[in-house]
Amino acid sequence: MTGAGISMTAMVRVPLTTEDRERGERLGALLRAARGERSIGAVAAAAAISPETLRKIETGRIPTPAFFTVAALAAELGIPLESLAACRRSNASPAA
Prior knowledge:
The protein is mainly alpha-helical and about 100 residues long. The protein contains 5 helices and 2 strands; from the N terminus they run ββααααα. The chain has a two-stranded antiparallel sheet with strand order 1-2.
């Protein structure tokens, strides 16, 4: 679309692969296990994200969350980022 010297292009998101979705599910499982008995609301508030965002990450509905979201959750849950990075491998366990 063009007008008055302004050019706009549509952004197209690349579809997620099966591997992307599986990696998101592993990340969600690890975060859910680390949350333990704490409520979604308490952890989300402490990490400065919405409870719905945390719920979606834990269930794999947001398989590729933003880095700073993951970093905030890792800090709040006491998980080293290296442990979360292990989620990219299909043989990583949620207890890593």
